[in-house]
Amino acid sequence: MHEKPTIDASSSVFSHVLSSVREYIVQGHIRGGERVPERQLCEMLGVSRTPMREALKALASEGLVELLPNRGARVRQLGRTEIRELFEILAGIESLAGRLAAERMGEKQLSTVETLHLQMYQAYLKRDLGGYFRINQQIHGLIVEASDNALLGAVYRSYTQRLAPFRYAANTDVYGERWGDAMREHEEMLDLLRRGDGPGLADVMYRHLIHKSDTVLARMDEVGEGGLEPIADRTAIGAP
To answer: Quick one: which of 46, 76, 187, 225 has the most CB atoms within 10 Å?
Structure first.
């Protein structure tokens, strides 16, 4: 059982620390298996240890970190088999969500997805991977939300954060043309949403996740199961 955060989750300080540290991990600043540098992160964010420790409890519940008794926390390290299995599960979840969303998505939700898609494309053109990924995850989340299935949404949330660092890394230039392929798949997803083609969208969303899995696993075959290399400045962290 993961220890639950004990401070108000609506606290602006807690929310800022949680989102900043999550993004720091997802962007590859800390390798899987490495200790989370709590003191350094507190200094970067200008906060005390209390909200930092509460944020780490929340990240442990998401599966991104592991809490170590009296020794802080470390980023959870996933092996090749676990990554493949998690991607397969998430691909199935998003495939079902896409099928349902194509049938149930309202005009307002579709308009929001279209707006976000344009913003994501602009981020892609600017090679703004951080911005691209944040918007990308919003789009995937909205599709799951539009499935109008609360249980499916809960299962999705329980898996998606655990794979977030690998989904992020799969779009970097380290992985060749994968980022461009992902953008083209999103163009196809939007077209299928507009046409209400549930089976078609289900197929594309499944392939979209499996392609990411293939990319990540191929890279892991090159560098070993010790994890993917950091892909950003390890001293930087998101501003408030």
So the answer is: 76
Contact residues for 126 (Cβ-Cβ < 8 A; gap 6+): none
Could you state, in order of their start, the residue ranges of all structural domains in the chain? Answer: 12-75, 80-223
**Residue 179 and residue 201: Cα distance in Å, rounded?**
19
- What's the pLDDT tens digit per position in 194-216? 999 999 999 999 999 999 899 88
Q: pLDDT, tens digit, for every residue of 28-54?
A: 888 888 999 999 999 999 999 999 999
The architecture CATH gives domain 12-75: Orthogonal Bundle (1.10)
If we measure between CA atoms, which residue out of 114, 132, 134 comes closest to residue 193?
A: 114
Q: What is the dihedral of CA 75, 158, 61, 216, to 10 degrees?
A: 0
Contacts of range 117-125, beta carbons closer than 8 Å, 24 or more positions apart: 117/186, 117/187, 117/190, 120/183, 120/186, 121/183, 124/179, 124/183
**CATH number for region 80-223:** 1.20.120.530
Q: Is 164 exposed, middle or buried (0-12, 13-18, 19+ CB in 10 A)?
A: buried
Please report the sign of the dihedral spanned by the C-alpha atoms of residue 43, residue 47, residue 53, residue 55.
negative
pTM over 0.90: no
